[in-house]
């Protein structure tokens, strides 16, 4: 372990920076900064990729030698209105196409909250399952896997009715592991004492067509938990090492479950966005080595 | 069911107002308003009771014919520093004494967050168990039961490392049901699909000395979940009916588990505190009849 991770290719071999961590950087600035620091992976978001052009973005990251570790995000599959629901399914197929173009096998799903006026969490979760049945085969045909992301229970009403890894697995396990996996994010799951058992269960899954590396674990994301939470609770994710999460212990759990894929750092934090993006990226890589790696 | 609950004694038979819901009212104003509206129960907090005088407060509520359904709050049992820990245990014994003086059998515990710099959730939960072993018999001798309250996972770092009913039960079940129960609050638990199974398990518990009414369920509290959450996420609890929680369904679950005790409305909401307290109490009683009762 060194104080500065930059340039230490072995230490950063699994490191990936989610685009939202340094959203102040344009895509070319991001790929440049990654190349300079030896960062091998990026997680991308649909909106900035669409603005840049999906094919152009794919070329940019490929030319930079970067691996796209995930695309965020599909989902929002809880609508009851038929027209809204059809629109959501169409949009998710488009997201699958974009993931395939970008060369990533993982489309992260934020499943959606309760429709206005509804109090039926169970019904909303069943509508997600119905949508997965329709989208799973389409994704698989395009070499993409859907990754259900359980979001912290504080988002259950308005953003994602899938709040625990247990709930995510109960949905995913109805489908082949080649079609539907889960996104494991420390920020959302750190408080749950069932995580060791659930991560092991996720990792142990085999596919319908044979073994799948990492089982159901499609991507591992890390962020720290800091307080007080800001209003709206969206933009308060902590830089690695600043908060309450045992990041190294969590990473060891995920590794022990058989996951050997990328470790993607996804921070939504206004203070980090106000700083120089390349500097934040360097800091994040250094924090990763210090707080997540052995 | 009527539009206005006031004066309908049968409808309000189980209704209790937690003092924090109308904290703008002094204790005499609160007991007066309860008497006028036919509210039979109150949940009290230590600080306002201490300011008024514990014995005087006990006399006031007794003379008003009110039942004290719980006292909030003991807890904060996660400190590692020996002096701090001893102080917390002493304070909890004082809280038991106050509960006994007020004539309530239920002391609600907010267990405490992680000590500064710690990331050891499991260790913190074990220190709570150690403290319960010391405090449980003391409480029982004084006719008081400790009620572990699982708080929403968004409070896990800084307020309460017990985040689910499952975690609360795993702690409580190490002790006789006469000594340690749980507080079930819709605001904290509504998102969890394991609640039906866990509430049933809590209700089915028997004591070391025989059956205990409601099993481990010492008190049932209700509040609605509204978004967006305010900064700090403490003061955003919704008036009954304004949010995402299926309050009636939750109450039916708790009843089906064998709980027949008070339903205490506990709202921390700055908008409600800015209004006339007696008016808020009347509205809350009416909302209770409309959204919680059959």
Protein architecture, described:
2 copies of one chain form a homodimer. The first copy, chain A, has 294 residues and is an alpha/beta fold. Chain A has one domain (15-291): Alpha-Beta Barrel (TIM Barrel). Helices cover 41% and strands 16% of the residues of chain A. Chain A contains 11 helices and 10 strands. Chain A has helices at residues 27-37, 46-52, 54-63, 82-102, 121-141, 165-172, 186-189, 195-203, 247-256, 270-273, 277-291; strands spanning 15-18, 41-45, 67-75, 106-110, 145-148, 180-185, 217-222, 224-225, 237-238, 263-265. In chain A, the strands form 2 sheets. Chain A has an 8-stranded parallel beta barrel with strand order 1-2-3-4-5-6-7-10, surrounded by 7 helices. In chain A, helix 4 runs parallel beside helix 5 and helix 8 (195-203) runs parallel beside helix 9 (247-256). Chains A and B meet through helix 5 of A and helix 5 of B. Chains A, B: InterPro entries: IolE/XylAMocC-like, Xyl_isomerase-like_sf, Xyl_isomerase-like_TIM-brl. Chains A, B: It comes from Streptomyces armeniacus. Chains A, B: This is Sugar phosphate isomerase/epimerase. Chains A, B: It holds the Pfam family AP_endonuc_2. Chains A, B: Keywords: Isomerase.
């Amino acid at each position: 372990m060194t104080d500065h991770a930059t340039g230490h290719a072995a230490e950063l071999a699994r490191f990936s920076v989610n685009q939202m961590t340094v959203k102040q950087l344009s895509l070319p600035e991001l790929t440049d900064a990654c190349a300079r620091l030896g960062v091998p992976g990026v997680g991308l978001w649909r909106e900035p990729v669409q603005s840049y052009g999906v094919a152009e973005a794919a070329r940019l990251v490929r030319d930079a030698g970067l691996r796209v570790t995930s695309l965020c995000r599909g989902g929002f599959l809880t609508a009851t209105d038929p027209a809204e629901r059809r629109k959501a399914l169409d949009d998710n197929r488009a997201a699958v196409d974009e993931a395939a173009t970008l060369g990533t096998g993982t489309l992260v799903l934020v499943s959606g909250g309760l429709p206005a006026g509804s109090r039926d969490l169970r019904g909303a979760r069943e509508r997600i399952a119905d949508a997965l049945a329709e989208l799973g085969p389409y994704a698989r045909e395009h070499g993409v896997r859907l990754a259900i992301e359980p979001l912290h229970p504080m988002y259950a009403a308005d953003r994602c009715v899938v709040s625990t890894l247990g709930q995510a697995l109960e949905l995913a396990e109805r489908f082949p592991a080649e079609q539907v996996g889960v996104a494991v994010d420390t920020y959302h799951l750190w408080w749950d004492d069932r995580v060791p058992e659930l991560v092991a269960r996720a990792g142990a899954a085999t596919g319908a067509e044979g073994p799948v590396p990492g089982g159901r674990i499609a991507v591992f994301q890390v962020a720290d938990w800091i307080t007080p939470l800001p209003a709206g609770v969206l933009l308060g994710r902590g830089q690695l090492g600043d908060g309450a999460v045992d990041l190294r212990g969590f990473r060891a759990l995920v590794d022990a479950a058989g996951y050997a894929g990328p470790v993607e750092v996804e921070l939504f934090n206004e203070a980090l966005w106000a700083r120089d993006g390349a500097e934040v990226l360097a800091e994040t890589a250094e924090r990763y080595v210090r707080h997540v790696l052995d």
